[in-house]
Amino acid sequence: MNEEIQDRMHREGMYLASIKKRSFAFFIDEMLLSLLLILALGDSFFEAKTVEEMILLTNQFVLEYMAVKVIYQAFFVMQYGATVGKILVKIRVVEMKTLQTPNVVVALNRAVVRVLSEMLFYLGFLWGALDPLRQAWHDKSAKTLVVDV
Question: Do residues 61 and 39 make contact, with C-beta atoms less than 8 angstroms apart?
C-alpha cells in the first residue's frame, strides 16, 4: 500500500512534508490560537495578578478553546487544504485516495482526532514522526497525508 501511494504521489510531483515543517506549522497555529484566546479573554486575562490566576482563567475556557481548535483545523483544511501555519511553511493536507483537498467530513474527522491526540500527551504526533508515511493518528483516521506544496 505504501509503495502504491508513493508511486502515485511521485507521478503527481508530490512529496511528503518533513517532520520539521509540520512541527513549525503546528507551532505557528498554536501561537495564533493562543493569541486569539488571550484577545478573547481580554481584560480578564490582563487583570490576572499571578500565573496561577491566568492558568485558572484559561482552564475555565478549555472546552471552548478545544471547540475553536476543531473549527479552525476543519475549516482551513476543508477550504484551503492547509491551516495558516501550513500555508506559511508551504505544506498542505490531501486525501490519500484522491490526492485532493479533504472534504468537510474528512477535515472534521481529522480535526477532532487531532485534538484528542493532543489530550493524550501528543502520542499521536509522536506516532507520525515514526510512521513511514509520516501519518499522525489524525492523518490515519482521516486517511490523509501532508505534502509539500
Answer: no
